[in-house]
């Protein structure tokens, strides 16, 4: 490299901080920039980001392909819905309960399921969604069957003397943004911890990890539970946003959507899941205005993904991020 | 623990796969600070014996005593973590997508963090533990001659280099005993020398005992103090390396008697 090559590089600015600032401002200003429908689409994307983060921990980091995410999403939605309808509990109680119930239910489900290998495990997790739907349909005294739970109140907070209800779409957007941001932070903290390194070790070579003292079975079970808890939290937001939950919350389509978010965004990268949620959910929601081409456009997106971005969009984001990073 | 007791004692170990008796009533021990060899023709049960001793497979009968503690039936990860007995695999394995340094840090983590829950920590204590592991990893990387490639994904390196990564990984937790399954298979002579050097360094300076399965007879005679020969799942003979290679029964076993 000659001097003329390096000279301008040395003066290149690190654009990452300004860009991050712009993204934060854009996220905060979004409801005022776009239409109400755009805000709605973003809310759905933010809600799906949570189960997707959970799934990314499982698929992207630990290497376990699961289709159970919609089941835990549904369990969370029903938990929050039932609590809100029957006990009128504040939003954060419902959210925590939804995460807790989904996470804890993942324990008895994970113990037999995780004993299975590769494809059998996938089929088993698919079964959880179907069983979940059957229970929601038939346990009528609790779930009201196909009628679903309706009249779930808008999220309300009770913080000491202060209490308020999140009513409008715009305020719900900020609530979803806050929860999704916290979820992203939590996922980031998990993968950055030594446990995150062990998860990657299990994905890369389970027997080798085991031989180096990593209790792989316990890690897989814990990650399965954490991933379910993420889905449950997402489900509680979903219930409060739509104010209705029905057995259709347990549907395969949701599990595959979450999987597409993770794989399309870039498995094993937090930023990939964030980007994937916005792209795949936000896009399909936004395309509802043109129902004739909606699924075609969605399908086209998947084709582009399969042919040109086998590892999802995350490597691209990474390269861009590093490119604007300036010279060290 | 008692200093004159063997570090590992295996008593009457048997393992069958269907009608095949892969290992049939084999007993052996490894003395503290020793490098012992385990040889035998292909299919003589060496690997099964290894798997049963290290928790990868469950023996049908028999007992494995590590440093005075009965570890029969323990899982592979528990034997590694609590027993500090580590093993390698015949086929070289590394975490291919991760760089050399990360490979070694993973190898040390479960020995540094006291509980599984503590591995989820991101605080000061957690960071200082990882920093200490990184330092140790770098020392071992230097020793293994991998300094220049330490930030490269393990999968990009040659088979011999990956062997060295695997070896260095096993030294991360300050093991008592290492079981090596054909450490020299498929690597070039220059790396063989380096592996031999590192085994001897680990044995002399770090006090690690070894059990080595190896086909390269020159290596066996140069590093092992004692050799056990398996044939058709049973112990054939045991003795000094030089006596073993002269032994008529051993020759017959290898030549397909």
Plain-language structure description:
The complex is a heterodimer of chains A (328) and B (257). Chain A has helices at 3-10, 16-33, 36-61, 69-87, 91-113, 118-138, 140-143, 169-192, 194-204, 206-211, 216-242, 252-265, 270-286, 291-308, 314-323; strands at 156-159, 162-165. By secondary structure, chain A is mostly helical. Chain A has a domain at 35-250. Chain A has a two-stranded antiparallel sheet with strand order 1-2. In chain A, a hairpin with a 2-residue loop joins β1 and β2. The longest helix of chain A is centred in the last third of the chain and has 27 residues, at 216-242. Chain A starts with a helix and ends in a 5-residue tail after the last helix. Chain B is α/β, with parallel strands linked by helices and 257 residues long. Chain B folds into two domains: 1-84 and 175-256, P-loop containing nucleotide triphosphate hydrolases (Rossmann fold), CATH 3.40.50; 93-172, no CATH class. Chain B has nine helices and ten strands. In chain B, strands 6-7-8-3-9-10 form a six-stranded mixed β-sheet, sandwiched between helices. In chain B, a hairpin with a 2-residue loop joins β1 and β2. In chain B, α3 (100-112) crosses α4, α3 (100-112) packs parallel to α5 and α5 (159-171) packs parallel to α6 (189-205). The longest helix of chain B is centred in the middle third of the chain and has 20 residues, at 124-143. In chain B, 43% of the residues are buried. The chains are: A mainly alpha (328), B alpha/beta (257). Chains A and B meet through α8, α9, α10 and α11 of A and α2, α3 and α4 of B.
């Amino acid at each position: 490299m000659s001097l003329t090559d390096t000279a301008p590089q040395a003066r290149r600015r690190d654009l990452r901080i300004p860009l991050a600032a712009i993204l934060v401002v854009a996220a905060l200003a979004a409801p005022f920039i776009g239409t109400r429908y755009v805000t709605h689409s973003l809310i759905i994307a933010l809600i799906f980001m949570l189960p997707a983060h959970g799934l990314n921990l499982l698929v992207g980091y630990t290497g376990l392909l699961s289709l159970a995410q919609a089941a835990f999403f549904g369990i969370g939605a029903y938990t929050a819905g039932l609590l809100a309808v029957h006990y009128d509990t504040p939003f954060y109680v419902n959210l925590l309960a939804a995460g807790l119930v989904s996470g804890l239910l993942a324990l008895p489900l994970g113990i037999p399921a995780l004993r299975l290998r590769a494809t059998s495990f996938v089929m088993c997790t698919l079964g959880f969604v179907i069983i979940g739907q059957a229970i929601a349909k038939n346990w009528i005294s609790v779930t009201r069957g196909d009628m679903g739970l309706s009249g779930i109140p808008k999220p309300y907070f009770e913080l000491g003397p202060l209490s308020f209800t999140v009513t409008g779409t715009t305020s719900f957007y900020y609530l979803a943004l806050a929860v999704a941001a916290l979820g992203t932070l939590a996922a980031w903290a998990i993968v950055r911890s030594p446990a995150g390194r062990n998860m990657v070790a299990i994905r890369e070579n389970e027997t080798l990890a085991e031989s180096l003292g990593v209790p792989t079975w316990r890690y897989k079970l814990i990650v399965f539970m954490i991933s379910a808890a993420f889905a449950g939290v997402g489900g509680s937001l979903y219930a409060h946003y739509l104010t209705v939950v029905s057995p259709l919350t347990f549907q395969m389509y949701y599990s595959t959507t979450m999987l597409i978010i993770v794989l399309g965004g870039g498995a094993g990268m937090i930023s990939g899941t964030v980007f994937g949620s916005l792209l795949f959910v936000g896009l399909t929601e936004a395309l509802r205005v043109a129902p004739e081409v909606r699924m075609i456009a969605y399908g086209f997106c998947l084709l582009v993904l399969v042919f040109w971005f086998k590892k999802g969009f995350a490597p691209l984001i990474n390269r861009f991020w590093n490119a604007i990073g300036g010279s060290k | 623990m008692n200093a004159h007791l063997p570090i590992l004692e295996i008593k009457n170990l048997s393992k069958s796969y269907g009608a095949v008796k892969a290992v049939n009533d084999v007993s052996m021990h490894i003395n503290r600070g020793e490098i012992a060899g385990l040889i035998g023709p292909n299919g003589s049960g060496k690997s099964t014996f290894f798997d049963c001793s290290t928790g990868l497979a469950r023996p049908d009968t028999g007992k494995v005593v590590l440093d005075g503690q009965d570890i029969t039936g323990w899982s592979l990860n528990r034997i590694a973590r609590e027993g500090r007995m580590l093993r390698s695999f015949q086929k070289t394995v590394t975490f291919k997508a991760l760089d050399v340094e990360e490979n070694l840090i993973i190898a040390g983590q479960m020995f540094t963090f006291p509980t599984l829950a503590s591995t989820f920590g991101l605080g000061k204590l957690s960071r200082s533990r990882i920093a200490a592991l990184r330092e140790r990893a770098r020392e071992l990387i230097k020793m293994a001659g991998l300094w220049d490639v330490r930030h490269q994904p393990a999968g990009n390196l040659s088979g011999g280099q990956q062997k060295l990564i695997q070896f260095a990984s096993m030294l991360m937790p300050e093991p008592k005993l290492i079981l090596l399954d054909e450490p020299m298979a498929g690597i070039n002579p220059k790396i063989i020398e380096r592996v031999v050097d590192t085994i001897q360094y680990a044995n002399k300076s770090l006090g690690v005992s070894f059990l080595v399965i190896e086909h390269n007879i020159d290596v066996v005679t140069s590093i092992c103090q004692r050799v056990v020969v398996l044939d058709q799942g049973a112990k054939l003979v045991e003795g000094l390396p030089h006596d073993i290679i002269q032994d008529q029964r051993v020759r017959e076993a290898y030549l397909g008697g």
